[in-house]
Amino acid sequence: AGGYAGVWATENTREAIFDALKRKETYATTGPRIVVRFFGGWDFTAGDAETRSPAETGYTKGVPMGADLPRMPAPGKVPTFLVAAMKDAQGGNLDRIQIVKGWVDKAGKAQEKIYNVAWSDASTRKPGKDGKLPPVGDTVDVAHATWTNTIGAGELVGVWKDPAFDPMLRAYYYARVIEIPTPRWTAYDAD
Fold this sequence. Notes:
Blueprint: E1 4-7, H1 14-23, E2 26-29, E3 35-41, H2 54-61, E4 62-64, E5 80-86, E6 94-104, E7 110-119, E8 155-161, E9 171-179, H3 185-190
Antiparallel strand pairs: 1-2, 3-4, 3-5, 5-8, 6-7, 6-9
């Protein structure tokens, strides 16, 4: 029931792992071994979410998670992000990918906003007027500490453009991947 850290290293050597840590090309999970790729740039398009190799597209058109975006190439450009996630082989399917944007406004106050980028059952689950998605559902049988992967998706990929980008404000972005509901550890103990 512990968390895991993921490091995108070029090879499984001490040097390559430390290089990846230095680049901040890392992520963490609260337990499931979800595979996450997150790239930022200025030229990702919706078509990039259709690729079978998001990492190749990500490195070609942007910078990986942990990196700073390069300078804005032209006035009026807006940062775009390519994010992909694959479920833990032994875990729950994926519900959604969100991007969390944080910034300090002109008054010096910390701000944060969460955007849904990709989600399962996108043809039937539509965001409401408030931008919130309806719940994915729940297949958990608490009494037996089980669930089924009959809802959600095995993998999700999306491209997102910041709708409120202000080039005068520094901001950070990170991806959050949410699984479908699964039993809590207390259900396993009770079972």
